Amino acid sequence: MLKKIFFAAALLLASELIAKPVVIASIAPVEYLANAVGGDKIEVQSLAKGDVHSYEPKPNDMKAVAKASLFIAAGLEFEEAWIPRFKASAKNLVVVKSDAKIAKLKEERGEQAEHDEKHEAHADPHVWLNPMLAITMARNISDALIDMDKANKDFYLENFQKLMNDLLAFDESAKESLAGLKNRKFVVYHPAWGYFAAHYDLEQISIERSGKEPKIDEMASTLKMIKDENIKVIFADPNRSQKSAQILASQTGAKVELLDPLGYNLLENLKIAVGAIKDANSPK
């Protein structure tokens, strides 16, 4: 009898010690997509917080990656430098590109950069801010999870279907909300909303130029545009400097509001963006 009890206890302990697969996402919105698809079958965390363009892993990040089975990339610049090192520290790490099969836009870099023949064009990585492209990313994540854990294929597919339906429902609502706007321009500090703008027939105007604070003449041209277009709201990025946005607001009477392209809850973040842009561009 004691042997049976001991054996049952040992089996219970062993099952508890079997850890869930660790999945590392490069950024929080991709973590959200992975959690939505993977549910309680996986353990997910993201790496880059704040300004992802200057991200370098901390020791704790490297420890987390070393335990991971899957790394979900999003097409960001830092991934090119660090993924080979991640794979070296985790021999069995599988890397999936969540942005696979997505045609990239050219990142807005400012007028000077556009006319500089030596300037290298950069692909805009912010594909998750278009809900249709977020669905593609989620499908790529679902495929990767199924490859890693075929026993739970139906679970992952069901979760993906629910997430897709939620994003499709949001998209229909967003199109209705934004359809009647006459002024379809919105001003942002960092040009992260290009895919979002293109999808909803909006025009994103960036304060930042070539990844840097604007020069005096660039500020002057943006200032004139804000006045000419009667722009009432300037959207700043909470992950970046808000100095230029505040200066422009003080000289035009516009107000500064925050839009976070890297917020974890992607669906809620997109809803906030639609509401904010609609409110900013609706007649008062």
Automatic annotation (TrEMBL):
InterPro entries: AdhesinB, Bact_metal-bind_prot9, Lipoprotein_PsaA-like, ZnuA-like. Residues 1-19 form the signal peptide. Keywords: Signal, Transport. Pfam families: ZnuA. It comes from the Bacteria. Belongs to the bacterial solute-binding protein 9 family. This is Zinc ABC transporter substrate-binding protein. It comes from Campylobacter magnus.
